[in-house]
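Recall from the previous lesson that a structure prediction takes nothing but the amino acid sequence as input. Here we apply that procedure to RNA polymerase sigma-70 region 2 domain-containing protein from Subtercola vilae. The sequence below is the only information supplied.
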Amino acid sequence: MSIHDAVADDPPVSGLSFAADLLRRVAQGDHDAFGDFYDVMSARVHGIVCAGIDDKLLAEELTGEIFLEFWRSAPARISAAEPLRSVLLFAHRSVEERRALLPGASASVAGRHSSRP
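The prediction returns the following tokens.
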């Protein structure tokens, strides 16, 4: 699954509004809402991470780090025009950053974004 597939394949509107409401509550420091937000979004975020990181343990670690950052940055994310899309795009950027740090991966990551053959 690519990031474009994951972001384009959004859950039904009712699921989106529920997750957006949870994100608003997380932004207010609601721990229970964070647990519910994790339950709703973790499979999607982990799918994005696994699409870019082959190592299962590293993917699990990065998924946890992403959710920790969600907790820290929820107030800023809720102000975004599309808060859930910003969360998924943040997950994708986190994967790209981590891949760039992996041995031998920087050339392939840079090459993927190059316009040259």
